[in-house]
Amino acid sequence: MIPEIREAYNRNFTAEQYQEFHDQIYEVIGEHSTFRLSETPIFLPASLAKELLDSCDRISKVIANPENLAKTSSAIREPYWSISGDPEKPIFLQYDFALCQTDEGIRPWLIELQGFPSLYFFQADLARAFRQNMGVPEGFSSFFNGFDESQYVNLLRDVIVGDHEPEQVILLEIEPALQNTRIDFRATKNIIQLETVSLEELEREGKKLFYRREGRVIPVSRIYNRVILDELLTKTDTNYAYTFTEDIDVEWAGHPDWFLRISKHTLPVIGHLPNVPETTFANEYVPGAWDLSKYVLKPLFSFSGAGVNIHPTENDIAALDRPQNWILQKKVAYGPVLETPTGPAKCEVRMMLIWKPGDELPTVVNNLVRITKGELTGVKYNKEATWVGASVAMHRL
After folding, report:
1. What is the mean predicted confidence (pLDDT) over 19-43?
2. 293 FRET partner, CA 20 to 30 A, in 132, 151, 246, 381?
3. What pLDDT digit, counting tens, does each position of 168-227 carry?
4. Do the Cβ atoms of 220 and 166 come closer than 8 Å?
């Protein structure tokens, strides 16, 4: 997207560099990625980086409005439930933008957002491996708003661990060794020494939670939550000591309610903003009112693209069991904005934000990129293609 840099990067790319890039990630993290890593970062021109940041700022101002923030509680509906503890406000926010080719050039359009942690630690390691192995020019960074890697890590440590004893703060997940995001769990432990604990390992006495390591029983005072409720709902034959329904005495580094409260459920509220497509709840759709070929049907709370219908019909909408848990969103046309040696590719940029307690608004700190040559952008797709997969956006400082 910066033509001279893109042309030079593609010309100078070698398979040996790419292997060294992979080798460094394994050596630093100690875990192989289960998803494909792209051969390239993307390079954002200053105008596009600014438009992404400006759009994030507008979205954040709507979300942070106290009245709007309070109304997000209506997202907690059957089959979900509110979890004990004071949600206050989300610590982690992600805004996902498709990069679209328009008459005005490349423009970002919001497609989803979430109040749930993403790959904050892996993305720092990924960006460093690109810079050190793949010919990224000097003066480019994946971080925003004046952060460098050290300041970024310190901020994450502050909002996740805070003033607690580090061993009493855990990353909580269901069967973490089986998760596609486990490379980020390992990176998290490497960088801020946070123990990953599986839900099945937790022990509970009244309102107190514990886990065991090397024969020691360790109390849990704070949880960096990575459990997704959709997955928890599928676990019907387990015997967890904690099921997210009990009243417990812990602090949350990212209260689980925000997975629901800031989500696709938020899109209709911000649909009036620039860079945000028109969106409505499926139960508010009037049959025959729209040309459905221009819309996509999405479940509110699924993840990794599960359940998305990119070619919905009137019958699909009528057949929904809980239409209030689905949205119709005007399609966003991902553009073939990235030139690669094996053909043009489409890109999605996830802007990663932190809302530090005491701050008026969230702050954009880093990003994540998915590159695709197919209809869907998730890292589990496009497995046979090259120059696709997980990546990061670099911009000039």
Report:
1. 97
2. 381
3. 999 999 999 999 999 999 999 999 999 999 999 999 999 999 999 999 999 999 999 999
4. no
Q: Are 123 and 295 in contact (CB under 8 A)?
A: no
Rounded CA separation 9/386 (Å) = 15
Q: What's the pLDDT at 367?
A: 98
Find, among 230, 238, 222, 136, the residue nearest to 172 by Cα: 222
Predicted TM-score (pTM) of the model is 0.94
Q: What is the pLDDT of residues 222-259, one digit of tens each?
A: 999 999 998 999 998 889 999 999 999 999 999 999 99
User: CA-CA distance, 223 to 204, in Å (whole number)?
Assistant: 14
Task: Identify whether the C-beta of residue 116 lies closer than 8 Å to the C-beta of residue 259.
Answer: yes
Contacts of 134 (CB under 8 A, 6+ apart): 9, 13, 17, 18, 21, 39, 40, 41
| Residue 64: alpha-carbon gap to chain centroid | 19
The number of beta carbons lying within 10 Å of the beta carbon of residue 242 is 17
DSSP class per residue in 24-68:
HHHHHHSS--SSPBPS--EEE-HHHHHHHHHHHHHHHHHHHSHHH
Burial of 365 (0-12, 13-18, 19+ CB in 10 A): buried
Q: Is 100 helix (H, G, I), strand (E, B) or coil?
A: strand
Neighbours of 178 (CB within 10 A): 10
338: its two tokens: 């990235």
The DSSP string of 128-183 is: HHHHHHS-PPTTEES--TT--HHHHHHHHHHHHTTTS-GGGEEEEESSGGG-TTHH
Strand partners, 216: 213
Structural contact between residues 52 and 108, judged by C-beta atoms closer than 8 angstroms = yes
* Domain ranges, ordered by start, for the chain: 3-277+332-396
